Structure formats: C-alpha cells, structure tokens
UniProtKB/TrEMBL annotation:
Source organism of the structure: Anaerococcus octavius
Entry keyword set: Hydrolase, Membrane, Protease, Transmembrane, Transmembrane helix
UniProt cross-references to InterPro entries, sorted A to Z: LexA/Signal_pep-like_sf, Pept_S26A_signal_pept_1, Pept_S26A_signal_pept_1_Lys-AS, Peptidase_S26
NCBIfam families cross-referenced by the UniProt entry: sigpep_I_bact
EC numbers: 3.4.21.89
Renumbered residue ranges of the record's region Disordered: 1-33
Protein name, per record: Signal peptidase I
Length: 214
C-alpha cells in the first residue's frame, strides 16, 4: 500500500515537471518609466548646453554696442555677432570692425574699426588721418565728425599690432588708439560681421569700406 502511494507520487511529480513553463514578463512600474524619460530629457539639455558653450567659446559670440563711438555705422544698443576663430587663420584687415579687450579698463570690451595693420605708418596731422603718407579716405565717418587735433602724432605698427579708431570723430566721442596706442592681436576678441538687433537694421556689417583687398 505504501509502495503504490509512493509510485503514484513519483508519477504525478514527473508529469507535473514535464508540463510547459510559462514565464510572464512583468512591466516596469509607471513611475520608473517617467523617471527614465526625465533623465533622458535632462541629459539632452546638458549635452546641448555643452555644445553651445563650446561653440560660443571657440567660434562665435554675441555682443552689445554700448555708447556712440561708432556712429554713424553702429548705434548704442545694437546687437552684433562676432567671429572669434577667424583670427587664428588670417590677419585682420583695414576696415574690419573688431571687438577688443579694453586696454585701459578691466573686464570691458570696445567696438572699433581697424585703421592700420602691421607694417603701416599711421599719422594724425591737420585733423586728418594719413596711412603710409597718404590721406586716408574714410567714407564711414560723418562730415560733422572730424578728427579733433591740430598736432601731429605718428605710429609705426609692428608685427601683430593694429591701430583702431571709432567712426565717431567728435571730440571725446571715442576712446581708441589715439589715446592708448596700437593694440596687440591677442587683445582682439573677434570681428563683428552681422547685426541682428534692432530688426529694422538686421544684416551683414560692411567690413571693407575701402572697396579693396588688403
């Protein structure tokens, strides 16, 4: 009797073991899915900010014009895009509008125009600017704004030196190379190439007013 019961038990266990095993896949909790989605979103935002930061640091940046030293070309409050990487591949040219670190003020930027490049001799005489002995034609300045000096000053620009001036030549309107001398290339952050505000004046900035290739 005991032997029969034992055999029956064995048969039942064996038949049960032979039966198919079905594993049901469990769905992750809803809260876990939402957390994964939030993390992916945060990750995407961080990556985008890092890329934007690298582009801003290496290639391009935006700056705001403060003051009237570049009238009538630029006005107070104008917003500009500047190219920061170009200087690593070529030199600045006469006529370029550049953003430079203020030589006479900490943590401040100036917007000026390149008037002289390495190898040039700049002379201020009889209220006019002379480039290598010839009077410089400056179509970007207004007839109302003249160079306010009757004295004679002269600078010879060495390698990597630039002479910069504001387009507004009214007395005291621009603090530029007439006051602090030539600026080194390393002090120039980049050159302005596009005005994006105000929208009514949006467009490329003329960096070659002389109509020549330098």
């Amino acid at each position: 009797m005991n032997s029969e019961n034992k055999n029956e038990k064995v048969v039942i266990e064996t038949e049960t073991n032979k039966g198919p095993t079905i594993t049901k896949k469990q769905k992750p909790p809803k809260n876990e899915k939402e957390e994964d989605g939030v993390l992916e979103w945060i990750k995407s935002i961080v990556i985008a900010l890092v890329i934007a930061g690298v582009i801003k640091w290496l290639f391009f940046d935006a700056t705001k014009v403060s003051g009237n030293s570049m009238l009538n070309t630029l006005h107070n409050g104008d917003m500009l895009f500047m190219n920061k990487i170009g200087k690593h591949f070529h030199d600045y040219e006469r006529g370029d509008i550049v953003i430079l670190k203020a030589p006479d003020a900490y943590n401040k930027l100036y917007v000026k125009r390149v008037v002289g490049v390495p190898g040039d001799t700049i002379t201020l005489k009889d209220e006019k600017v002379y480039l290598n002995g010839e009077e410089l034609d400056e179509p970007y300045t207004s007839v109302d704004y003249t160079l306010q000096t009757s004295d004679t000053y002269e600078w010879y620009l060495l390698d990597n030196q630039y002479f910069v001036m504001g387009d507004n030549r009214a007395e005291g309107a621009s603090n530029d190379s007439r006051n602090y001398g030539p600026v080194e290339k390393d002090e120039i952050v980049g050159h302005a190439f596009f005005r994006f505000y105000p929208f009514s004046d949006m467009g490329n900035i003329d960096n070659n007013p002389y109509g020549e290739s330098n």
